Amino acid sequence: MTPTSLPGPARWAARLEEAETLDGPIETLEPHIRKAFGTGTKGKVLRGEWLGHALHPALTDVVLGTWTSALVLDLIGGRDSARAAQRLIGVGLVAFGPTAWSGWAEWVEAGPREKRVGLVHAVTNAAAVGGFAASWLARARGRHGAGVVLGMAGAGAMAGAAYLGGHLATVRRVGSVHPAYDADPVGPASAPEK
After folding, report:
1. Domain limits of the chain?
2. pTM for the full model?
3. Using CB atoms within 10 A of its CB, is residue 143 exposed (0-12), middle (13-18) or buried (19+)?
């Protein structure tokens, strides 16, 4: 499949991989991220080396699941579900920190193309967390309608970030994998041909 025959979102991700304009910010940011999240025992724990595969995807399920559940409650539960939706958003906000840290720990080990996509993934996630944090605050101040709108804006950014995260995990195969899997390959490479 050539880049021009890819679906629109995939072309966008492919263009990000080639966006050398992101290299300057990456070079500035990387030493700080590596020091904070990527080295020593902390980096190994955050990458999920103790699990045998990346920790980041499992943590993203908590954030995505709670925020999506809150939006479902907003759409079908209305004001009766307002308190539960706010709590779910709060859980997602608390879970966001460790999720981001584990993502940064993977990012520092990635290649240049993946780092470009990863940087945009992180910025888009920052927009999502901003939207959901503003949603939580609006709800705490009794402005449920504004909270719903801000949550929807956060969800839009969340969807874009999730797409890029999926691109990194499935297309570019970014993520810690235990070396034992190298001796016994699993997945698409060993699947029977169609």
Report:
1. 22-174
2. 0.87
3. middle
